[in-house]
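Dear support,

I submitted the protein below through the web form. The confirmation email said the job was done, but the results page showed an empty box. After a refresh the structure appeared. I'm attaching both so you can tell me whether what I see now is the final result or a partial one.
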Amino acid sequence: QAQFVESGGGLVQPGGSLRLSCTVSGIIFESKTWGWHRQVPGKQRELVASISSGELTNFADSVKGRFTISRDNAKKTLYLQMNSLKPEDTAVYYCAYQAHSGSWNYWGQGTQVTVSS
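What the results page shows now:
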């Protein structure tokens, strides 16, 4: 069974940085497109960043220039480097892979990121 373990979240002041990690087991990692999503209570989950198997990346406009996504296929781990954090980045962050249908598949509990002074 697939398992995704997200980590690295926490409380940080505005302008600070965090690095999220998602370690995957029970599923092929290297051939898939992976993404980081976030969700605030009462709102839809939104795609923040994605990275293809060929390491092409895409970012939501709200995080462009501040966030970087990367992957380590040998470690089956996905990363999200978040810099210049803003209060509006506060959310639970989840990793997911994209199925052939285009839908996203989540298997982790997420990691809470809180940006506050």
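Response: this is the final, complete result; the empty box was a page-load delay. Residues 83 and 111 are 17 Å apart (CA to CA).
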